Amino acid sequence: MGIRIHPGNAATDSSVSTEPARRQASNPKPKKKFLRRRARDHSQKLRLGFQAAFLLLNVWLGGQFYLWVRQFEVPGSALAVSRPAGVEGWLPIGGLMNLKYWLGTGLVPAIHPAAMFLLLAFLSMAFLFRRAFCSWLCPVGTISEYLWRLGRRIGNFRLPSWLDIPLRGLKYLLLGFFLWAVAGMSPEAIASFMHTPYGLIAGVKMLNLFRFLGIVGFLVLGVLVIASLFVQNFWCRYLCPYGALLGLVSLASPLRIRRNADACIDCSKCAKACPAWLPVDRLGSVRSAECTGCLECVAVCPAQGALTLSLPERLQSKSKQNGMPAWAMAAGIALLFLGLVGFAKTAGHWNSHVPNAVYQRLIPHANEATHPMP
């Protein structure tokens, strides 16, 4: 018996096998319903206002600190300007050392206590509002942002992943070194260090570093400025150990940028706007330590309820599921900063307890004060 082949069967089978594909082509995936966001976003106006105010505050503190130093450098000057303790915010390592001293002894340090209270304020912000200090307050971060926005006119570019990822690790290496150095010091060693000539006038040493910038210093500063023009937040992204510390603390924050996949229209505007280059459009929530809480992604999102800074669903009130408004975040940042500074001032723990006679002896010879290496 032979096997009969019916030519028509092959064509019939072929048409049957391609039928699902034709149906899928004729019935494309339905587009999501677009509900445009009704309320106008004011987060960036608030953030830029905070940045400008804090930058001006630091300029004022720096000017007053310079005048205070000059009183001791110029013989016969009247001591008419008081020392602004707020400049100790520029001594984060001192703040970290004093924090360990306080935790180890329960005593507020007598030298540079403002550095510790400012560090506590910024750490608290990182826990509650991500790295909000970096994008809302930090003057270096503000200048860096101004530079890369200016660089857009020239042309910013993004480093390839094989270079970007290891460079990001540099700030954690620097942080690790400082944490290792502070961890190896006992509270007694920290107190002893703070009372050395170098420790007493550490702020003056920092000022003189910029007042008498050498050729190498100018070259380093110039490279950082040029790099910041072409690469967004070059210093913050790759080199800042302070930002690395705040980023690690922010990982424990219950507040995160969260994306509602049902409301999202997949326009990718959020990812394009993110200064940290995070793929916000593909994440359910942003957990990265690189997120600075700038809210730029939320500001550009056109869909109602698609992107919010919010708590996990289990912690949200059923009546309020729209996330934290920008004004509430701004108010929280202001309350933390002003509250801790106000407490320190009221409790008498803001200013260093150093007689003017000691400053008069040390400041004119500040460049001779060397770091007391262990």
Beta-strand percent range: under 5%
Can you write the helix and strand succession as a string? HHHHHHHHHHHHHHEHHEHH
Distance between the ends = 100 Å
> Using DSSP, what is the number of strands?
2
Class per helix and strand makeup = mainly alpha
Overall average residue pLDDT? 89
Q: Summarize the amount of helix as a percent range.
A: 55-70%
Radius of gyration: 28 Å
What features would you describe in this structure?
This protein has a two-stranded antiparallel sheet. The chain has 18 helices and two strands. With 374 residues, it is an all-alpha fold. Helix 4 crosses helix 8 and helix 8 (161-183) crosses helix 14. The protein has a domain at 43-59 and 88-255 and 325-368. It has helices at residues 7-17, 19-26, 43-73, 92-105, 113-129, 132-137, 139-151, 161-183, 187-194, 197-200, 202-211, 215-230, 234-238, 241-250, 269-273, 296-300, 326-346, 356-362, and strands at 256-259, 307-310. It is 57% helix and 2% strand.
Features of the shown structure:
disordered N terminus, two-stranded antiparallel sheet, mainly alpha, 374 residues, globular
Q: Summarize this, please?
A:
It contains 18 helices and 2 strands.
Topology of this protein?
Blueprint (H helix, E strand, L loop, with lengths): L6 H11 L1 H8 L16 H31 L18 H14 L7 H17 L2 H6 L1 H13 L9 H23 L3 H8 L2 H4 L1 H10 L3 H16 L3 H5 L2 H10 L5 E4 L9 H5 L22 H5 L6 E4 L15 H21 L9 H7 L12
Antiparallel strand pairs: 1-2
